[in-house]
Amino acid sequence: MATALTLPVTDFKLSGAQWRVLSLLVVSVFINYVDRGSLSIAAPLLKDELGLSPAELGLLLSAFFWMYAPFQIVSGWLVDRFEVTWVLAGGFFLWSVATAATGLVHGFAALFVLRLILGIGESVAYPSYSKILARDFAEHHRGLANALIDAGCRCGPGLGTLLGGVLMARFGWRPFFVVLGLMSLFWLLPWSRWKPEGRTSDLTTSDQAPSVVEILRERSAWGTIAGLFCANYFWYFLLTWLPFYLMRERHFSMESMATLGAIAYLTIAVSTSLCGCAADRWIRSGASPTCVRKTFAGSGLAFSTLILPVAVIADPTISVLLLFFVCACYGIFSCSHWAITQTLAGPLAAGKWTGIQNGVGNLAGVVAPALTGVVVQRTGHFFWAFVVSAAVVLTGSMMFVFLVGAVEPVKWRARGHATRHTQTSSCAICPSDEGTPCR
Questions:
Q1: Do the beta carbons of residue 150 and residue 267 sit within 8 Å?
Q2: Which of 351, 358, 378, 420 is geometrically suited to a Cys-Cys bond with 79, CB 3.0 to 4.6 A?
Q3: Are 197 and 112 in contact (CB under 8 A)?
Q4: Distance (Å, rounded) from C-alpha 370 to C-alpha 374?
Q5: Domain limits of the chain?
Q6: 175 vs 433, which has greater pLDDT?
């Protein structure tokens, strides 16, 4: 029987068991994003074969978020109430089966239901990741751990688009979904062997864990929720409109657009991985988590506002290079925002807090594409869409720096009372009662 993996502060390296768990989490989020994005790749083939109208196709593409966002709260409750590793396995099984079944059904209604089921299954992922990292990984390891998970989710759309397009063109969309879903199920085999097992004393009842209302009484909860929504707005703006922008306003070919898009995703993945290592090293050297995590999250989003000059610079080469730099800046943010939540919530509330935060944050996946479309239609170009994106991402930076308090565990008490340990620091972004300089 495996035991909990938490290491004392003096242990600077991840153990072999932790590396195995982390590797499986990265693979799971990669599969997660390939599964959810495959329908977009297959959309032209689906439309022709099933005779779907543009409105029906739009409903299919949005159906995932109908269940994914609200079920974050349900999944957060589940991972705080039951053993998280089994909840994650159950969700993974459900979304893999839904992916495989997509290749077998005929008709709009069946596909729509399967997309709803996919959203329910995938909703367990991020609450489970936060619960596992908060419980089984030390503070000075969470930067790298979250960064690698984030890198997996950035690589999923890039590789999924490239490989999915080639394989569907050669074998058809139905075999692709069936094989993808069934092959994904093999992930459950190593997970059943290497998953971390929480101690009996770690398993909390619903009476012991804080409620959603208690979490929302924390100012920092609102900071992380609003901050993630703003950051996700920026991400979904790039994810949904960048290809169109590169082709229509910058006049790149389809092949060039695909290559540039893949490089942009890869840039975020590399940046977040390197910055995760740097953040953990900074904490191990003695700096406070408040100073480190808020510096990375706040500065990463602040520098992402350089997306605005991308739309202004006339030279397409310089514009694209600046775009890659902006993606690297977004990676600086990506390595730390979930680490902030995991430290604040602690193992007791990490599932619920992450569920609320990710549920609201993913509403940006509805707002950003739609609002961008309206702005582009009314103005006839992308400049003001870039302005809105830059303003939103700057707001997100301020949320993490000023609205989120000290990054230290909330001490949850019965009936919604919460206090926290004092973080000693005089750093500009480290609130403190004692004024001891941040190291």
A1: no
A2: 351
A3: no
A4: 6
A5: 16-191+206-420
A6: 175
Write down the H helix ranges in 103-253.
108-122, 125-136, 142-171, 173-184, 188-194, 212-216, 219-248
98-128: pLDDT as tens digits: 999 998 988 888 999 999 999 999 999 999 9
93 vs 95: CA distance, rounded Å:
6
CATH fold, domain 16-191+206-420, is Growth Hormone; Chain: A; (1.20.1250)
Q: What is the spatial distance between Cα 43 and Cα 61, in angstroms, rounded to a whole number?
A: 8
Measuring CA to CA, which residue among 393, 235, 228 is closest to residue 301? 393
Q: What are phi and psi of 419, to 5 degrees?
A: -135, 170
**Please, are residues 397 and 406 in contact by the beta-carbon 8 Å criterion?**
no
Inter-residue contact 337 to 403 (CB < 8 Å): no
- For residue 49, the tally of other CB atoms under 10 A from its CB is 13
**pTM (predicted TM-score):** 0.80
In order, the DSSP letters of 179-200 are HHHHHHGGGHHHHHHH-----G
